[in-house]
């Protein structure tokens, strides 16, 4: 348990600082409202008007997002190999090459069937 | 000793038995090649390439299975033979080989059904372009250009690979991965019908939702069993169960949750709700494939999981399976009576068959109790699966040829008078239905006989009495369809029987022949099932 | 930390996931419920793995597999949901009643 004490202490300090800042800014800070301040925050750019419910995204986003997630997640299988690659020797290397090849097959399919084209 | 040192001391580079696992490797190789064909072959040549590739792949895997099966080594005395491959992940033993053979032959037949083009006027019975909306310009363009999704062949090959891996898996991780590999392509295939697109997509959505839900329970069960035994491997779990390591709650909860996932896949009540909806909505070729092969694979996995891993806790799970078996037979037989759609009726019939199979499963006549010339309940269930699989594929194949203007005429009222319209088709269907009902001289009878006698010998006589009773109820709705075909007048225009190409004809002929042959001379296949021996541990 | 803390948390998460699947009518939110169930199990697996000090890390490896399969499942599930939305115009699972047992008179009696 002692090992975790610094982490716990850090957590307490962080929480304390956050609470302190919020409370102090509410008490001390001036309260002047204007249009820009009440608008929703969109990373500093002018908020784009949107219909109720947030509007719809083109379905292309979905395809791109799903492809990204699937290929992204596949890489997780490299993680155990990265942990134990020296014990696995040549066998591990061969298996991983085979694995990457199958991922490439999926990539080839997506590429040839136009999954990567935006328009 | 630091953890790194422990790792180095106990870690040995893994090995992989390529020749033992060649049937699996061939099927997955064909599936991946199929994806490449989709990517690089010109559109016009894809159908032929894919169909030939799939047929060759399945035949190749079948040959490999036979070779592997002939070279199995005896293990640990008794009738068990085989070896554990891939670092304890896959058990290649007699029952595995038998199930691989069954799944591959049934898949070979189903590939032919998938490849049928004549019934839809020169295109596959799958959606030309799944993403195109019905009634839009894109849809019309897709159908005039004769577009078709030849991806169905690689998808099917992936499913076949999963079905082979599922009953052969020897640890829970492999079993879960196999479960998903067999399920995910099937979810997609269900939604790809060319006709009645909305129904098909609804079926896919329902199947997917319920399938994902049940696999959630399945892996929770895996986690609990892992927590109990400290290992995913069946041998280690079996040792922990026999040793009663403590923490029975984890074990019982794990068994119950794993059973939920398994019972969902085999379509046993009360986890059967998806079966009729999905069987009705899915393209009929997919339904045939799914009904036959998934059932075979899932029962194989169920048997291995419960006999090998949880065999020591048999008295804990037997009462649960009794209840499920009885409920399944009741639900399947009784609800089938009121169905008006032939695909739904066959779906309920498959639920009833799951109940009969569970009877054999729970009867659990083990090797030690078997006299000379008798078979164990494992072998009886394997034999029943063969008889059920062929009859089912052929029955759904018949459904694809009885058509009207809107495609397949699945409403039972359209089937009245079929005996006059086409005596051959009606006659074949009648024999298949009698086979499902279990009339003597058909495969259904010998299958039921094998399963019920072993269950009786295993001491489950109340279950057998129930099963025989509900076989009679089930026979009633099969006979009702036969009466409808022969002794009713056609309603309106009456049904028409489309002439299929040689492919569907082969499927129906094979199923019909198997139904009769296994009923008259069951000996060779029974011997083969007996030769499969027991699971290796 | 006692083992039952993560187990309790994971069973609660799993229960929330089951509740979400059973109660939600929007197909996408049902999928989120399923996802929650799978991730609850991951917590369970990793907790057991740490508890046993499993040399081969069976639990953690399984968790990796579950993550990948969950991603595949969600990708496929969203594709099906998207297709259903395009053809049906909505994804309310309660309205998917085209396929169901009907209260129709049996054919033989007609």
Automatic annotation (TrEMBL), chain A:
Coiled coil, from the record: none
Compartment(s): Cell membrane; Membrane
Keywords annotated in UniProt: Cell membrane, Membrane, NAD, Oxidoreductase, Quinone, Translocase, Transmembrane, Transmembrane helix, Transport
GO molecular-function terms, A-Z: oxidoreductase activity
Membrane topology (UniProt): Multi-pass membrane protein
TM region positions: 6-28, 61-82, 88-110
Catalytic reaction annotation: a quinone + NADH + 5 H(+)(in) = a quinol + NAD(+) + 4 H(+)(out)
InterPro entries documented for this protein: NAD(P)H_OxRDtase_bac/plastid, NADH_UbQ/plastoQ_OxRdtase_su3, NDAH_ubi_oxred_su3_sf
Record EC number: 7.1.1.-
Primary location class: membrane
Enzyme class: translocase
Summary of subunit composition and partner proteins: NDH-1 is composed of 14 different subunits. Subunits NuoA, H, J, K, L, M, N constitute the membrane sector of the complex.
Family under the similarity heading: Belongs to the complex I subunit 3 family.
Entry-linked NCBIfam families: PRK07928.1 (NF005922)
Function: NDH-1 shuttles electrons from NADH, via FMN and iron-sulfur (Fe-S) centers, to quinones in the respiratory chain. The immediate electron acceptor for the enzyme in this species is believed to be a menaquinone. Couples the redox reaction to proton translocation (for every two electrons transferred, four hydrogen ions are translocated across the cytoplasmic membrane), and thus conserves the redox energy in a proton gradient.
Protein name: NADH-quinone oxidoreductase subunit A
Source organism per UniProt: Nocardioides jiangsuensis
Organism phylogeny: Bacteria, Bacillati, Actinomycetota, Actinomycetes, Propionibacteriales
UniProtKB/TrEMBL annotation, chain B:
Lipid bilayer topology: Multi-pass membrane protein
Location relative to the cell: Cell membrane; Endomembrane system; Membrane
Keywords of this entry: Cell membrane, Membrane, NAD, Oxidoreductase, Quinone, Translocase, Transmembrane, Transmembrane helix, Transport
EC number of the protein: 7.1.1.-
Stretches that traverse the bilayer: 20-40, 47-70, 97-115, 175-193, 205-229, 249-274, 286-307, 319-338, 345-368, 380-402, 423-441, 461-487, 499-521
Function recorded in the entry: NDH-1 shuttles electrons from NADH, via FMN and iron-sulfur (Fe-S) centers, to quinones in the respiratory chain. The immediate electron acceptor for the enzyme in this species is believed to be a menaquinone. Couples the redox reaction to proton translocation (for every two electrons transferred, four hydrogen ions are translocated across the cytoplasmic membrane), and thus conserves the redox energy in a proton gradient.
Family label: Belongs to the complex I subunit 2 family.
Protein name: NADH-quinone oxidoreductase subunit N
Originating species: Nocardioides jiangsuensis
Gene name of the encoded protein: nuoN
TrEMBL record, chain C:
Name used for this protein in its record: NADH-quinone oxidoreductase subunit K
UniProt family annotation: Belongs to the complex I subunit 4L family.
Membrane association type: Multi-pass membrane protein
UniProt keyword terms in alphabetical order: Cell membrane, Membrane, NAD, Oxidoreductase, Quinone, Translocase, Transmembrane, Transmembrane helix, Transport
Highest rank taxon of the organism: Bacteria
Protein's cellular compartments: Cell membrane; Membrane
Reactions catalysed according to its record: a quinone + NADH + 5 H(+)(in) = a quinol + NAD(+) + 4 H(+)(out)
Organism, as annotated: Nocardioides jiangsuensis
Subunit structure: NDH-1 is composed of 14 different subunits. Subunits NuoA, H, J, K, L, M, N constitute the membrane sector of the complex.
Pfam families cross-referenced by the UniProt entry: Oxidored_q2
E.C. no: 7.1.1.-
Ranges annotated as spanning the membrane: 6-22, 29-50, 62-85
Gene Ontology terms for molecular function: oxidoreductase activity
Function: NDH-1 shuttles electrons from NADH, via FMN and iron-sulfur (Fe-S) centers, to quinones in the respiratory chain. The immediate electron acceptor for the enzyme in this species is believed to be a menaquinone. Couples the redox reaction to proton translocation (for every two electrons transferred, four hydrogen ions are translocated across the cytoplasmic membrane), and thus conserves the redox energy in a proton gradient.
């Amino acid at each position: 348990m002692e090992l975790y004490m610094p982490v716990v202490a850090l957590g307490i300090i962080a929480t304390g600082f956050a609470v302190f800042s919020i409370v102090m800014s509410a008490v001390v800070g001036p309260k002047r409202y204007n249009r820009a301040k009440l608008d929703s925050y969109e990373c500093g750019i002018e908020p784009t008007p949107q219909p109720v419910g947030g509007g719809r995204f083109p379905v292309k986003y979905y395809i791109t997002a799903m492809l990204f997630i699937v290929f992204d997640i596949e890489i997780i299988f490299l993680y155990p190999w990265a942990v134990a690659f020296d014990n696995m020797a040549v066998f591990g290397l061969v298996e991983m090459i085979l694995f990457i090849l199958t991922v490439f097959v999926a990539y080839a399919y997506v590429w040839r069937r136009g999954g990567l084209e935006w328009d | 000793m630091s953890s790194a040192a422990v790792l180095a001391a106990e870690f040995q580079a893994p090995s992989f038995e390529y020749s033992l696992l060649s049937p699996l490797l061939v099927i997955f190789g064909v599936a991946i090649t199929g994806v490449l064909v989709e990517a690089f072959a010109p559109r016009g040549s894809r159908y032929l390439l894919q169909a030939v590739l799939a047929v060759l792949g399945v035949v190749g895997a079948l040959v490999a299975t036979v070779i592997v099966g002939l070279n199995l080594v005896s293990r640990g005395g008794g009738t068990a033979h085989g070896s554990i491959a891939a670092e304890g992940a896959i058990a290649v033993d007699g029952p595995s080989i038998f199930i691989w053979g069954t799944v591959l032959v049934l898949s070979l037949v189903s590939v032919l059904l998938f490849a049928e083009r004549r019934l839809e006027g020169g295109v596959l019975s799958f959606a030309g372009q799944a993403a195109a909306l019905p009634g839009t310009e894109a849809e019309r363009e897709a159908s005039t250009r004769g577009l078709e999704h030849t991806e169905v062949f690689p998808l099917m090959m992936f499913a076949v690979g999963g079905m082979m891996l599922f009953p052969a898996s020897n640890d829970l991780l492999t079993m879960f991965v196999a479960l998903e590999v067999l399920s995910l392509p099937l979810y997609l295939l269900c939604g790809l019908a060319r006709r009645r697109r909305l129904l098909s997509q609804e079926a896919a959505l329902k199947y997917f939702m319920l399938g994902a839900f049940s696999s959630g329970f399945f892996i929770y069960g895996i986690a609990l069993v892992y927590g109990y035994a400290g290992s995913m491997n069946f041998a280690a779990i079996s040792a922990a169960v026999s040793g009663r390591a403590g923490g029975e709650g984890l074990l019982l909860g794990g068994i119950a949750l794993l059973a939920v996932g398994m019972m969902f896949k085999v379509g046993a009540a009360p986890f059967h709700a998806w079966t009729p909806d999905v069987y009705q909505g899915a393209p009929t070729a997919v339904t045939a494939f799914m009904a036959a092969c998934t059932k075979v694979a899932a029962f194989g996995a169920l048997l291995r999981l419960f006999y090998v891993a949880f065999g020591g806790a048999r008295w804990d799970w037997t009462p649960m399976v009794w209840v499920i078996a009885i409920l399944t037979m009741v639900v399947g037989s009784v609800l089938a009576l009121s169905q008006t759609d032939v695909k739904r009726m066959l779906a309920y019939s498959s639920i009833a068959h799951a109940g009969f199979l569970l009877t054999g499963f729970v009867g659990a006549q083990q090797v030690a109790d078997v006299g000379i010339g008798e078979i164990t309940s494992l072998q009886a269930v394997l034999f029943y699966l063969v008889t059920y699989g062929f009859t089912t594929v052929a029955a759904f194949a018949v459904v694809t040829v009885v058509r009207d203007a809107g495609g397949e005429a699945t409403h039972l009222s359209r089937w009245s008078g079929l005996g006059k319209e086409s005596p051959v088709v009606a006659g074949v269907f009648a024999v298949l239905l009698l086979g499902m009902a279990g009339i003597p001289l058909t495969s259904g009878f010998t299958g039921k006989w094998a399963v019920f006698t072993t269950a009786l010998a295993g001491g489950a006589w109340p279950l057998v009495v129930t099963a025989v009773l509900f076989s009679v109820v089930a026979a009633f709705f099969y006979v009702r369809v036969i009466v409808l075909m022969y002794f009713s007048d056609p309603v309106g225009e009456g049904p028409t029987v489309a002439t299929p190409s040689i492919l569907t004809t082969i499927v129906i002929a094979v199923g019909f022949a198997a139904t009769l042959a296994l009923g008259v001379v069951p000996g060779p296949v029974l011997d083969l099932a007996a030769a499969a021996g027991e699971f290796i541990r | 930390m006692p083992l039952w803390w993560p187990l309790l948390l994971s069973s609660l998460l799993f229960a929330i996931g089951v509740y979400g699947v059973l109660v939600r009518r929007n197909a996408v939110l049902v999928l989120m419920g399923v996802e929650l169930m799978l991730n609850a199990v991951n917590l369970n697996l990793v907790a057991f793995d740490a508890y046993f000090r499993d040399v081969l890390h069976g639990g953690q490896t399984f968790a990796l597999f579950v993550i990948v399969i969950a991603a595949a499942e969600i990708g496929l599930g969203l594709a099906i949901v998207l297709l259903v939305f395009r053809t049906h115009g909505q994804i309310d699972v309660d309205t998917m009643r085209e396929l169901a047992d009907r209260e129709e008179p049996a054919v033989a009696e007609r």
